[in-house]
Amino acid sequence: MQHHRTSKPEEDISHIRQMMERSTSFLSLSGLSGISAGLIGMAGFLAVYYIISTNGLGYSDLKENPYSVPLTLRILAVACLTLAAALGSAFYFTQRKARKTGQSLWSKPARNALTAFALPVSSGGLLCLILIWHRLLFLVAPLTLVFYGLALTGMSRHTHREVYWLGICEIALGIFACMIPGYGLIFWMLGFGVLHIVYGAALYKKYK
């Protein structure tokens, strides 16, 4: 007589829970995307630091003596390239994982996550451009951390819970950086560089 293997009740419950999570959450975020974004963020920090130091300035000079327009534009160009490279790498690794897991990048959970992320980021980006226009550059780095953290906490409702805690850490760093604006660039490197690498490594180890 042939015996059929029966699954345990806890295995069935776990399988049902996974199916429900996949239908309501976007779980294809890759830890490698966090690591790559962190490395790119570190490279962007080094590029900006090099530009500032070769002009005989420091980030702490911003509060009393804003940079010249050409220097500001160079730093803004580096920031835009850093952002584009980080987003590109995140898209590549996330798309690769989505293919492996069979989850579409344009599913409803993915769209919900992207919408929750986009509003705070776009609002923060516009505010930072206004601050640059008014030559208040010393607040830009801290506020990018705050708005990015807000975007992550909103996005976390539609994806991995770890994203929420990354967002909280980014917000805390940004607020603390506002209190000591002379070190805003250092805090930016910690938030977009170090925290991303740590988060990415933890996510990759847990969900690889």
- Tell me the number of strands: 0
Overall pLDDT level = 82
Distance between the termini: 40 Å
How many distinct folded domains?
1
Fraction of residues in helices? Answer: over 70%
Estimate the strand proportion.
under 5%
- The unreliable regions are 1-6, 11-24
The total of helices stands at 7
Q: What is the alpha-carbon Rg in Å?
A: 20 Å
Question: Which structural class should the secondary elements be placed in?
Answer: mainly alpha
What form results from the Cα inertia axes?
elongated
State the order of secondary-structure elements, H for helix, E for strand: HHHHHHH
What does the main sheet amount to?
none
Task: Give a quick rundown of the structure.
By secondary structure, the protein is an all-alpha fold.
Describe the structure.
The protein is an all-alpha fold and 208 residues long. The protein has one domain (29-93, 105-207). It has seven helices and no strands. It has helices at residues 9-24, 31-54, 69-101, 108-133, 140-155, 162-179, 184-207. α2 runs antiparallel to α3. The protein starts with 8 loop residues before the first helix and ends with a helix. The relative contact order is 0.16.
